[in-house]
Amino acid sequence: MALIIPLHFVAFSHPIMAVFIVPLVTVGHNIQYHCIVYSFAQNKYRPKTDRRYRWAKALFKNFAVYALVGLVFTFAFYRGPWIEGVKSITGLKLDAVLFNSIGMMAGIKEPAALGLGERVFAAFLLGFAMQHYYLDSKIWRVSKDKDVQKNLKV
To answer: Please, what is the Cα angle at 26 between 11 and 98, to 5 degrees?
Structure first.
């Protein structure tokens, strides 16, 4: 957290910084995270014969299956039919809210020009990111968790 929070302050200090730093940090973190999760799960679930793990074994059998499921999940939850249902029921323009909120965090949009909902949504987005980093620090305690050490083979 001591590194991530200042990095976000730098990234959001100017629109140009956000345009270049945020994708680099996010893409690098995502690739690293998926490599760790995939490696951990392969080592943990491959030797299991228990039927309770059949879905985990199938998901982590090979990287193509893992990547395909990830893409399907992403498209289903970002652009799936339920998004259109939420839009029609609530009347929200979700794309505009999302882009305005991200733009505010990146310094591209003036917060005073946005609605309260967009500002609150931006705060939630940043809060979710910070919570994610905090939980990662608790989950992947390689130096203290013997199960993590064993399944990452470190």
So the answer is: 75
Per-domain residue ranges of the chain: 4-152
pLDDT digits (tens, 9 = 90+) for 10-34: 777 776 676 677 676 777 778 888 8
- Determine the residue type at 31: I
| Reduced 3-state DSSP string for 86-144 | HHHHHCCCHHHHHHHHHHHHCCCCCHHHCCHHHHHHHHHHHHHHHHHHHHHHHHCCCCC
Share of the chain above pLDDT 70, in %: 77
Q: Please, are residues 37 and 59 in contact by the beta-carbon 8 Å criterion? A: no
pLDDT tens for 38-59 read: 988 888 888 777 888 888 888 9
The Cα–Cα gap between 11 and 102 comes to 12
Phi-psi region of 114 (alpha: psi -120 to 50; beta: other; left: phi over 0): beta
Using a cut of 0.90, tell me whether the model's pTM lies above it. Answer: no
What is the C-alpha to C-alpha distance for residues 116 and 19, in angstroms, rounded to an integer? 24
Which residue reads 């228990």 in tokens?
50
From 107, 111, 123, select the one nearest 16 (Cα to Cα): 107
